[in-house]
Amino acid sequence: DIKGFVFDLDGVITDTSVFHSQAWHQVADKVGAPWSKELEDGLKGISRMDSLEMILKAGNVSDKYTDDEKVDLATEKNTNYLKLVDQMTPDNILPGIKEFLDDLKSNGYLISLASASKNAPKVLSKLQLADYFPEIVDPKSLSKGKPDPEIYLKGAELINLNPEQCIGVEDAAAGVESINAANETSIGIGDPQVLSAADVKFNDTSEMTLANIKNQMD
Ligand code: G6P
Ligand code: MG
């Protein structure tokens, strides 16, 4: 029986995936790497330094930058990203998410957060959703990022559940892969072609209700 939900943040709870993309696009332009939908989708769920490396590789310029210069590029991206986060309000919560979280709470489901973002606590506080997520996986504690199962295994552990008792919710292919490898049930929200590996699929957050999930799991 399902007893808990482990959530990704960016692109699931809120529309910050657009902000991440915008800030990375600037970096890609700066280093002369081509920007594409494939690159944009591939960056979702990936840690800050791994994302930078993917962009540099896409432009064949990884060798042109020293480690210090790479840290500077990633820091500049984060500064630009945080300028966008600073303007966030609860209006940036994606459609239906608040209602879904309330429904989970009133039905006794446990909730944790499995985001690769070091900015997750800040984003949750801007959304005034921090109270819903007392348990957050610390991305600094991870030895491997998504698609490795580690982050979703820790998300289950934080709420004292076995992976089989958890549903993971994602907007990224790397994240769905991580959930599946952790032996949790996966929900993919967004482009069904990108998220074909998900057990349960929704085009949009507004479609994610307990009833609709049960329907697809039967
Ligand atoms: C999430 C986002 C990625 C982002 C990563 C690291 O997984 O989907 O786009 O790169 O977190 O975020 P951070 O805020 O720590 O740079
Ligand atoms: Mg995401």
Automatic annotation (TrEMBL):
CDD domains: HAD_BPGM (cd02598). Gene3D superfamilies: HAD superfamily/HAD-like, Putative phosphatase, domain 2. Its cofactor is Mg(2+). The record marks 115, 146 as: Important for catalytic activity and assists the phosphoryl transfer reaction to Asp8 by balancing charge and orienting the reacting groups. Binds 2 magnesium ions per subunit. The keyword ATP-binding does not apply. It catalyses: beta-D-glucose 1-phosphate = beta-D-glucose 6-phosphate. Its EC number is 5.4.2.6. It holds the Pfam family Hydrolase. Mg(2+) binds at residues 8, 10, 170-171. InterPro entries: B-phosphoglucomutase_hydrolase, Beta-PGM, Beta-PGM-like, HAD-like_sf, HAD-SF_hydro_IA, HAD_sf, PGP-like_dom2. The active site is at residues 8, 10. This is Beta-phosphoglucomutase. It comes from Lentilactobacillus curieae.
